[in-house]
Amino acid sequence: MTDQNAEAQAARQRRISPLAATIVLVVILILGFLAVAAVTAEVLWYRQTGYLPVLMTQWIAAAVMFVIGFLGMAVPLFFAIDIAYRKRPVYARLTAQLDRYQELFEPLRRLVKWGLPAVIGLFAGVTAAAQWQNILLWLNSTPTGEKDPQFGFDVSFFLFDLPVFQGAVGFASAVALIALIAGVATSYLYGGIAFSGRDVRVSKATRIQAAVLATIYLLLQAVSLWLDQYRALTSSAGLRTGAMFQDVHAVIPGKQILAGIAIIVAILFLVTAFTGKWRLPVVGTALFLVSSIVLGVGYPWAIQQFQVRPDEKSLESEYIQRNIDATRVAYGLDEVEVERYDAVTDAEPGALRDDALATANIRIIDPEVVSPTFSQLEQIRQYYQFPKSLSVDRYEIDGQVEDTVSAVRDINIEDQTGWYNRTLVYTHGYGLVAAFGNQRSPGGEPVFLENGIPTSGKLGEFEPRVYFGQNSPEYSIVGGERTKPIELDFPADGESSAEATADDPVPADPEATEAAAEASAEEPAAEDAPEEEAADSGRQNMTTFGGDGGPELSNIFTKLIYALKFQDMEVLLSGAVVDGSQILYDRDPVERVQKVAPYLTLDKAPYASVVDGRIVWIVDGYTTSADYPYSEVKDMNDLTVDSANKTRDPMPKPVNYIRNSVKATVDAYDGKVSLYAWDTEDPLLKSWGKIFPDTLKPVTEMSGGLLSHVRYPTDLFKVQRSVLGEYHVTDPDAFYSAEDRWRTPNDPVASAAADAQKLAQPPYYLTLAAGAGADPNFSIYSTYIPDARGEGQRDILTGYLAANSNAGSKDGAISEDYGTLKLLTLPKSNSIPGPGQVQNSFTTDSKVSNLLNILRQGESKVISGNLLTLPVGGGLLYVQPVYVQASSGTSFPILQKVLVSFGDDIAFEDTLDAALDELFGGSSGANAGDGGVPVTPGDGATPPADGDESTSGGSTGGSSDPMDAVLQEMQQAIKDRDAAMKAGDWTAYGEADEKLRDALENALQGS
What we know:
By secondary structure, the chain is of the alpha+beta class. It has 30 helices and 34 strands.
């Protein structure tokens, strides 16, 4: 026996040791149990929410696709290898090199024959499973009733059918090609293909197998080429998305011809399987490749260079028009109401008399600035928090609809230590705080219409507890059968002031003394006694969750499941997890909606409203596609980034069709998710409704209270305003020339920082009247300036876009005017300053500059609020609140002044009402919402600065003695105000602030 044979026999005799087998078994069991735990947790979550069919549909569809993909790849590949091996020549003469390859390969032959198809099949299965949405949409496709302009197909063919057809053909082509390569390689290894000098010998079996697989592959390529002609209608390779002149006259005919050539070559390969003559298919393949270069590249290039480019504007006009029409329809811009707005620039007295309602609702509270103010005044305790950006909403107060700035008071457990406190005690936030958007207190703080703990105000009684919010803990364990509550509800004793910010004691972990606690007869552990005494002293109100918000931890198995899910064995071992306890997780409202409606793209700006006695999160959902023929493809992530939303998703999101198809709500108390079919004409939503029946509720089930808080979605408006910047031009010749292209101006407030990025100004929600004779409505708006770069950039207004966001307040009935897009176009002859120019005017105006310099004295910094633009008084009014905040210590922004501009005139005062009167010659003709705040009269109106020197409020050189005294008064008032702010003495703060205002007015009058 040779050494090699001896080694082979020894290898066969080797056995896996018992220890190794045990380790492998244990690892498999652990991984299997973790997988079972993850699956079970998902099932329990979906079952509790009532959306288990959604999960089952996803899993079944993905599993079926995985099996199809796995078997579709693995089976042909296995048979390709197996047939090539079984049909190998028995007495083939092999070279010495092939002999060595066979010796190395033979021990692994069975492993490769079974393992290679299995491994590649796994990748194919995973790839196929990821297409479950496309497959389900195809199986449940809905006709749109619209035809594409090139082939006359229903648009549903491009939305539903074409992606699946191309995916299936691509998959089948990959299977045929991989099987062909594997079969040829196996045949070569075992002598089915042999090289002798310039001759190639191919066995009959190998010839038939290779020729048949090549035939299949080429036939699939013919089908792929035929489908590619339709893909030209959604391609962005040309001047615009869609088939342009070059595509229609060169690319599409070329694809058709190449498909015919591929069929001919496939037939030649099939003939070779019987005749054994390779010359014709080889020549045919070479001609096919040459034809692909000529017809696929050369001919289209020649058409473009020698026919299109010399007369591109004329030849592309028809196809540009197709692109314009399709884009406006796909983005919901085909019914935009366009109105010429001849804006005036003279601020005449009484100019706002006809805009009294819109003027009264101008918002002076900036939701991007006042979060620290809300926190300081309404956070109450360190274990609460407010979001950095607040929401704009509206409520009916005393019969009048008022714009508000609001946010929920969410829980904050960052400073809490110990599993018990973080999981069972600090479980929820409390209340919704809302302030009038158009009012301020005499001290510059917001005027709250709902605040405090317990919550009180003008919104009536409602469930204030927030178990489901944007900042809720990863998971909490709540409810259960307890003798006394352990969940911290809110601080007692009426401590609802900003001074009460320290953490209050909470009940200790009763795990070791649960039985004694239930009997209320024994003392707690010594180390826990102080906390229990503090709790009993009445400083805390406790509660027990009474809703149905999460899976029950009803047995040791479910406890173990969630202990593994959250990698925390306390869930399993803690005695505080009693019968009936529920575990709440996936608590972010956007995350919850995404799980029950995986087909939706969700808006990045959910907001909370008090609706029918509950705090409800409202989330807008979109159905999108990038396959609408001739519609311009955009990256949605690029279009939704602005100064208010600086985070860009790293994964591209190409779209050329979008609809706000679903309005979703999430109850802040029990997490209940409701999906309402908002756009019932959307074909994508109709198809998803077939896939997930009974998950979408009709709009008729929406209460009037809920409808009154629905608004036009932010992200949709951002996408539409960007697209409309180009596509407000409907004439193809003018569109080609790009002579009237617009863009959203950069945010002048955010851009003022030295290291700031140049980000677009966000759209703003306001009550406004868009156009002459229009009634004021709650709307979202944005402005336009010319889209020019470099020295040609002019910051003047060219357009004003507003979307009606008032859905009405009748049960189940959407207002007919909701969603109406109104575009005000400003004539080119009018040079209305844009936001950047107005901000520059504010900064360079001598008296405004004096004011800002004075406000910056001491330890204070000046914060410019959002620069709002309103079409009132026959022109464009700009409004900007100015806040002051101490730069150190406990501080928050205080509204100090309001800047306004109309045409070339500028004014500023303590209140918007006073500033408007100053701006419009002493009387604007209307009253702003802050008109009741007492102010000190002063001269705040100025014409544009024309060389006036800006005098720093801190400079005293060369000034008169009276001015020195005034400056000293200001400096002392600033010091007193900062000291009062740090101490939390708001009475002293108000007195110091009043002294500062008097000194400011004296300084300005003396300048």
